[in-house]
Write a structure and sequence with these properties.
Length: 163
């Protein structure tokens, strides 16, 4: 049985390929996400992974927190002890971090994460579980089936420096 993806994940998938504009211009979609969550940024160079997650939650009718700080999601929603399909995952990266949505795992056991500002774009990339600070779920506890992550193809190049 295939389980339906959460609405915020379906919404996020629609933006795969959205990327920063090199130079003095900025991607209007990213600028709109900043406006949607009530933040004053007017560029696509400000780290926007948290803005992407927050905007996808808002566009899906879920509570959002209006933040550009990835680690703020460590206090969002319900804490999970393991990754679930569609959960928010927060990663260590210096004092800031990175945040995205879990969409599966690869054959090496890395999490496959749909996120914004991953190589300056919305895409799916592998991340080592050794960097995980926490998993969170919007609303109530997810169905047990969501903890059975699908196996996805991966290039095996684990992301290390995502904003």
């Amino acid at each position: 049985m295939t389980i339906k993806e959460p609405i915020w994940l379906e919404t996020a998938r629609k933006f795969i390929g959205t990327s920063e504009v090199v130079g003095p211009k900025h991607n209007n979609v990213i600028l709109q996400w900043w406006r949607d969550i009530g933040l004053p940024y007017k560029d696509d160079e400000t780290p926007w992974c948290a803005g992407f997650v927050d905007a996808m939650l808002k566009h899906s009718g879920y509570k959002f927190i209006g933040t550009a700080w990835a680690r703020a999601f460590l206090k969002y929603g319900v804490k999970l002890d393991a990754p679930a399909l569609g959960c928010i995952v927060i990663f260590e990266r210096g004092s800031g971090g990175h945040v995205g949505f879990v969409v599966g795992k690869d054959s090496a056991g890395n999490l496959m994460v749909l996120g914004g500002n991953q190589a300056n774009a919305v895409n799916i990339k592998p991340f080592s579980t050794s960097r995980v600070l926490g998993y969170r779920w919007p609303g109530v506890w997810p169905f047990a089936e969501r903890f059975k992550l699908p196996l996805l193809n991966s290039d095996g190049k684990v992301s290390k420096n995502e904003a």
